[in-house]
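Reviewer 2 asked us to include a model.

Predict the structure of this chain.
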Amino acid sequence: MNRFPKTPGPHAPSTYLRPRPAVLAFSVLFFSFLVPALSSATPQYDEDPAVSRAQHFLMSRDRGKEILAYVHLGADYRRHDFIRYVPYDNGGFALVYRFLWKTTEPGYTVIAFSFNSQGNFASLRVVDTDATISMPFLFADFSIKVLGNMFIETHKNDMKREDIAALQKLIDNADSKAMLEWSLRLDQLFGS
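Predicted model (structure tokens):
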């Protein structure tokens, strides 16, 4: 039993499979203009030496461990992965990385690292995390305060009163995020 008529008609299989010449010509022209336009509009950040410099600076396992030690003190580093590139209007850019770590449960933290147009580190911002107990920088700030006060207590007889006051002010204003940013700037500057 043949479901299709012997003479070509509106329901014959050959009508379905044969594209019309006008549609085919339009498709070829459309895609021949669309593909080059899209590829030239896509930023070629991987070819920018400043971006390459910044990525090389952040991508090592040791650098990931260093960063995680400030962000989630005491957590076990698993890995960090590049997520995306974000260009800024001033020529600078951000590189966004996801850090995977573990305390009692596995966790992640997403950090955007900002760089100037030459690829020099400027600042960082925590974008997302699933941490509930080990909030970013919380334990590092607390540790600075505890250890700093222990240091003062241990060495108070060897220090001048004004030195103790200056050190106490630094301890009270503990900012591990700012310390990490300074550490990253100096590491990049001195090539370590």
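The chain is about 50% helix and 20% strand. Residues 28-43 have pLDDT under 50 and may be disordered. We have added this to the supplementary material.
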